[in-house]
Each structure stands twice: as C-alpha cells, then as structure tokens.
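hey so u asked for the seq, here:
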Amino acid sequence: MARVPRAVLCVQHQDDCPPGYVGQRLVDLGAHLEVVDARQGRLPDPREFDLVVSLGSDDSAHDDTVPYLRQEWEVLETAVRAEVAVLGICFGAQLLSVVLGGSVAPLPDGPEIGWLTVRTDHPEIVDAGPWLIWHLDAMTVPPGAVSVAWTGRATQAFAAGRAVGLQFHPEVTIEAAQVWAAHYRDHLVGLGIDPDALLAEIRVRDSESRRRAHELTDRVLERLGFFALDPGASPDSSRTQSA
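ran it, structure tokens below
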C-alpha cells in the first residue's frame, strides 16, 4: 500500500464545491488530483486511483432523478468492493452512506448551518472542532460502520473499512465561502442566519480552518491506511496540480 495516495479522483458536482483545503493538502503530500465534474459525462474507473474523494452538492443523495446519481453510486460501489480508499464530504458522505447500506433524508427541523462543535468518540480521526456545518439532509451510519462524530441533530462522520464520510465541510476556502454567502443569502436570512456575520466568522477563522483541514486530512488518510505523519510534514512535496 502506498505511503501516501499518488493518484486521487475528486468527483465534483458544482463549481463552488471544489476540493479546497483538503485538495491542497493532498497536493502538498505529492498527490495528483484528477478533478472530474459528475455532471459532464462518464466518470473514470475508480480502480485506477489510490483514493476517491466525493465532494459537496446542492442535490439530494436520496433523489434518484438526479442524472448523475446512479453513475456515481456505481463508482463508489466499485471503489468499496475493490478496497480503494474513499472519502466523502457532505453530499459525498451521504452518497457513501447509501452505497454502504445507510439512508439519507431531509433534516426534520430544517438545515443545520454554522460553526459548530461535534461530539466525537474518535478524536484521532475527527476532533471536536468547531467545524463549518452546512447541510439540509442527514445521513445514517451504515450497518457495520463506526460512528465517529455527531451533533445533537445529525451524524457528522463515520468510518467503514477504507471509507470515511464527513458531513461537515473541512475543505471550504474563503473564496468558496464568499460564493456560498452571496448565493444563499436569501435562504440564510429566511432561516434567521445573518450571512454577513457568518462570512465574517469564516474570514476570521480562515487561517485556523486551513491548518485544521490539513491536519484532518492527515488523520483521515491514516485511518484509510496510508501513513502516519507529523502535523505539517510534507514528504516528497511537489505541487503537481493546484487544488
């Protein structure tokens, strides 16, 4: 098994949900990221990669009318069967939950949005945060998986074999957050959330968020069987592609 993932497939679903800080850390470690938009056609064979990362989306993982959903389910199923490492983030984690036998449904009391701490039984994977949480749907912990972290309202992380699902958003950069705050302004106001205050907090936390996202990426990679690194270490660091 590789010490670090060299070939990484990042499945993106919309322009404002890129690999961000997680992708940045993977590149720092020497990975080559192939970022593929699931909306644009056929996805590559996941068995050609060391790691598959499925990112966020406005779409719902329980909505089988989403055109690309069936194809991505099949890609994740193939990866899991072949023991290719998989990391799902937000929508990607929900897809992973479904593939592993879990379920996804709308949060009964509306969206969960903000900088929130989580409860964790496995701080060696996910610490208490706070993390940026922004989701309308909730996933269950799949049968046989380990519950890693949660809030009072929803599962926030699980692990199963060489797969990890994260409901929260460690990857979000300040640039992506600015797009979100502008695009979802009316929605946030309707929920009683001040979008300007939320964005201001994201700006204040940006340096810390980058550092903690990098550290989390290292811990997740270790859980997926790749390596154990000192925080901030950068073996064979060569930026083959910007994230």
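The first strand starts at residue 7 and ends at 12. The CA atoms of residues 106 and 124 lie 29 Å apart.
lmk if thats what u needed
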